[in-house]
Design brief:
The protein is α+β, with helices and mostly antiparallel strands. The protein has one domain. The protein is built from 2 helices and 5 strands. Strands 1, 2, 3, 4 and 5 form a 5-stranded antiparallel β-sheet that branches. Strand 2 and strand 3 form a beta hairpin. The radius of gyration is 26 Å and the shape is elongated.
């Protein structure tokens, strides 16, 4: 037979367990969300790096496709960086075709669509962290990836993944 003292201890333990259960479930759910977000971030970084590597196989500028420019002023003007007429991804022929890139990629994870955007700018050769408004022998390609699982698990705020690389013309 269970006496009253033991019954109160059992009821107290059940009440304590009931109070802790939501907190335990929240912790498990947060950990799952953090794991999914981390996996999505790794995939997004790999995807962005794939586009950078692909861009590295292209010529530096449209002027380099048909000739060998000897002055930066012979390169595409900064205001006109981007795809030429009839150029669409993946048939780009030069680096600045990646400017204003905006595609949806679901080949990395078939169940997740990542949005990939690109931006190409001329950079100051003496200070490569500063954007140049005129042509130089240095360009920066910045690739950003966004997706439904690229979020902060705590706040659910979007976390875009951005990688960039400098390319030089020699």
């Amino acid at each position: 037979m269970v006496n009253t003292g033991q019954m109160l201890l059992v009821l107290g333990a059940l009440m304590l367990f009931t109070l802790m259960l939501p907190s335990l479930n929240g912790t498990i759910l947060y950990n799952d969300s953090a794991l999914i977000s981390a996996q999505a971030q790794v995939n997004a970084i790999a995807l962005a790096q794939r586009y950078l590597a692909e861009a590295g196989t292209k010529v530096f500028d449209e002027a380099c496709v048909s000739g060998n420019p000897t002055q930066p002023s012979q390169m595409t003007a900064a205001a006109f960086l981007g795809r030429g007429f009839g150029e669409n991804y993946p048939d780009f022929d030069d680096l600045d075709d990646y400017d204003d890139l905006n595609i949806v990629d679901n080949t990395t994870l078939p169940s997740v669509s990542f949005t990939v955007t690109g931006e190409v700018t001329y950079m100051n050769p003496t200070n490569p962290t500063v954007v140049s408004s005129t042509q130089t022998y240095l360009k920066r390609l910045r690739i950003s990836v966004t997706g439904p699982y690229l979020v902060d698990p705590g706040s659910q705020a979007p976390i875009p993944i951005t990688v960039e690389q400098l390319f030089a013309y020699f």
